[in-house]
Amino acid sequence: MLSSRENIGFVLGFIGTSIFAGSLPATRLAVAHLDAWFVTAARAGLAGLCALVLLLVLRRPLPPKDAWPRLILIILGVVFGFPFFTALAMQNVPAAHGGVVLGVMPLATAATAVVLAGERPGLGFWIAAVIGALVVAAFALRNGTGATLSEGDAQLVLAII
């Protein structure tokens, strides 16, 4: 039986995954009418305002000063890099294609965790992750522009990094 905290975790995870699933289609709709830089800034601004309100309501303290350099690096990637490069990509490839290409993100996340956090996933994980990434790459090449990567694919790879 799951505890109340675990149930809340599953519900919040489902909500977060659902919101993320809609981000590429929403971004594709937005960049059809708005500049990619504006979409990125609006997305970051709205998320920042929501986070600020939540932090103020919950009365959470600021992170310690020694955490700020790493936080700034994370902000550059998560708040600006990923949204900007996906906005550019959504001008060039369909959202469904983008979702498939972004399917390699778990492998990239695991590799980052190994390098930066010293985590050591088991061999079974790596085998499954590499096979999954190869399937994603094969699908993207087969259903994309042929045997070459398109500009949108390159932008999606930059978003993943």
Biggest beta sheet summary:
none
Helix content: over 70%
Helical run tally: 8
Task: Work out the number of β strands.
Answer: 0
- Give the strand content: under 5%
Task: Give the mean pLDDT.
Answer: 90
Total domain units: 2
Would you give an account of this structure?
It is a single chain. The protein has helices at 4-21, 23-31, 36-58, 68-89, 95-101, 105-117, 123-143, 151-160. The chain has 161 residues and is an all-alpha fold. It is globular, with a radius of gyration of 18 Å. The termini are far apart.
What is the structure about, briefly put?
Helices cover 76% and strands 0% of the residues.
Top keywords for this entry?
2 domains, 161 residues, mainly alpha, 8 helices, single chain
